[in-house]
Design brief:
This protein is an alpha/beta fold and about 425 residues long. The chain is about 35% helix and about 20% strand. It has a six-stranded mixed beta sheet, with helices on both faces.
Length: about 425
């Protein structure tokens, strides 16, 4: 299976450029001759090469490429509203050797499973030994054109329209992690009125910190908040489709609480989130749940709802697009911090003990199927009266993730232990089958 929970993602090797070109050609076939696709990339060293390869596949099938350059994923997805589709070359929060291909529809949502299957079928057909290379690429008269667009200004203006109330000179910290967020978030927040202290705000293919915005990857932030008296610290991952944060007291805000904070501020009566989000959400509003993965959230959100999100930091605002939008979330949180102390709001949110673990393991997909999961990345979820546990395989890495929540710590730990026991039994079965 080529597509995972977040598009195509893998460690770069010498087969990737050809794959990117063929995916571009297949995406162009779906878009239709004479149309156009928006294309951008993050700060990874292989981004430009894979962009050129993808563009070649599009151009040779008479589909033009609107090139946005080094920009965040949500910027590319938002610009796609005026085109047939959009594509982002990124591995998101993965390490620097990885890269990937994300494809979006006009409304910013990830392409459907059906479209993914169509692309995979074309790639399979083209990889057959008797396949004619000319079946893939047009004649010299049938080539389209590549041109540049200013997707950043378009995206920034829309966000500023939606978030007009950032206080003048509110002190904030922004950590872009040397990723694509550098191209928009510093200018966005400054234009909104913030007094910004930036860190890791220059694009670089070598990240100064691990790209995933986990608390363990950001030990320096609390001291920076204290030194600058910042009202919040805003943290992006590599392609800035995520936003995590610290409050004015230097405390990392868990994603479940951040989701509830956004929902309360937007007066959201109905939200969409994933199976691994806290059960406290149901105590405050109507919640519809999906398997883990922003593609699942956006597809469900299209049926209705004010807000979608994942505890990992992917926040979807349908008023803008159905792509997770880190810059928009950063500006919205700056607006919230302009009206109240984040620490006060966070302290008012109930919280149950919630434990998350992930670990590398061989045969992760086979283990999940042995556990009875219909899909290894969707996983399995078991519940008790006082809590729940979700076990699922990562869609982008050879990992299994376990999340457990209980009304008290003992329950959460017991459920986590049960999860580990089930994995151990399934692993033994897979190895000895």
């Amino acid at each position: 299976m080529l597509f995972g929970s977040s598009g195509i993602r893998r460690t770069y090797d010498d087969t990737f450029p050809l794959l990117s070109m063929r995916v571009g050609a297949a995406a162009a076939r779906l878009a239709g001759s004479g149309n156009s696709i928006v294309l951008g990339h993050d700060s990874r060293k292989t981004g430009s090469l894979l962009c050129e390869a993808f563009a070649s596949g599009c151009l040779s099938n008479n589909v033009s490429v609107a090139y946005a350059g080094l920009v965040p994923t949500p910027t590319v997805a938002y610009a796609g509203k005026d085109h047939a589709a959009s594509c982002m070359i990124t591995a998101s929060h993965n390490p620097e050797p990885d890269n990937g291909i994300k494809l979006f529809t006009k409304d910013g949502s990830s392409i459907s499973t059906g479209s993914q299957q169509q692309i995979e079928a074309l790639l399979t057909e083209w990889s057959e030994e008797n396949s004619e290379e000319n079946n893939r690429y047009g004649t010299w008269k049938e080539q389209a054109t590549k041109y540049e667009i200013d997707a950043v200004t378009m995206h920034m203006e829309r966000i500023l329209h939606l978030c007009p109330d950032v206080a003048e000179n509110i002190p904030l910290i922004l950590d872009c992690g040397n990723g694509a967020g550098c191209s928009i978030s510093p200018a966005l927040l400054t234009k909104a009125g913030a007094h910004l202290h930036t860190i890791n705000a220059q694009p670089n293919y070598l990240f100064a910190r691990p790209s995933e915005p986990l608390e363990s990857n950001l030990p320096y932030i609390p001291n920076l908040i204290k030194a600058t008296q910042a009202q919040a610290a805003l943290i992006h991952d590599g392609d800035a489709d995520r936003l995590m944060a610290f409050d004015d007291r230097g405390r990392y805000i868990p994603g479940d609480q951040l989701l509830l904070l956004f929902a309360k501020y937007l007066d959201a009566k109905q939200i969409v989130t994933t199976y691994d989000a806290s059960m406290v959400l149901e105590e405050h509003m109507e919640v519809r749940r999906t398997p883990v993965g922003d593609a699942h959230v956006s597809q469900e959100l299209r049926k209705g709802g004010t807000l979608g999100g994942e505890p990992s930091g992917a926040w979807i605002f349908p008023e803008l697009s159905y792509c997770p939008d880190g810059p928009h979330a950063a500006c919205l949180l700056a607006e919230i911090a302009s009206e109240t102390k984040l620490s006060k709001e966070i302290d008012a949110i109930p919280r149950y003990p919630l434990l998350r673990e992930s670990f590398h393991i061989k045969h992760h997909h086979e283990i999940m199927l042995s556990l009875g999961a219909a899909s290894s990345t969707d996983g399995i979820r078991f519940e008790t009266e006082d809590g729940w546990c979700l076990i699922r395989a990562s869609g982008t890495e050879p990992k299994i993730r376990i999340t457990a929540e209980g009304r008290d710590m003992k329950t959460a730990k017991d459920l986590l232990a049960q999860g580990h026991e089930r994995i151990a039994s399934a692993k033994y079965a897979v190895i000895h089958q």
